[in-house]
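Chapter review: from sequence to fold.
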Amino acid sequence: SYQDKRKLRRHSETGNRTPKYFTDVAERVSDALPAPTTCRYCQAEVSLVHHKEIYGLSYGVWPYAYQCTSCKAHVGVHPSTNLPLGTLADHALRESRIASKDLFQRVLKVRGLSRTRGYQWLASGMEIPKESCHFGWFELKDCERAKSICENELMECSPMGKAFASAWISRSRN
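The token string follows.
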């Protein structure tokens, strides 16, 4: 809501190091994953940190993420909560998630699909439950499958869509 956004903006602008969670917002997050405590890559401790510790800057109105204290794998959190957006990811997995989601967003635009219908379409193509179709939950192999499905869909679009898809795909591979 507008009031929640104002609270968040004031909170992040003050530089508060300890986030205040809004439980009513957390209750609206479906399919929430538990907060990570141990790194899946190196088994070191994971802590909730401010974006400045990861990026050197503060991004958004809820600038927090979970980060491994050793290997620096990280994952963002849902705004106004301490709930992770997905699983901890190293650099390679983050890049793969970003690239596959970019292609997915292009499919939504070219096909005129809503986000909900798009995720239903992708889950069907990947032969996974719709509830498991979250880019933040994908592993490298899942990202590659999603990219392949999206690339194939873009290539089957209208002639104009094919031209855009071809340019998009070649750009995403570079």
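Two observations follow directly from the output. The longest strand covers residues 46-50. The longest helix spans residues 91-111.
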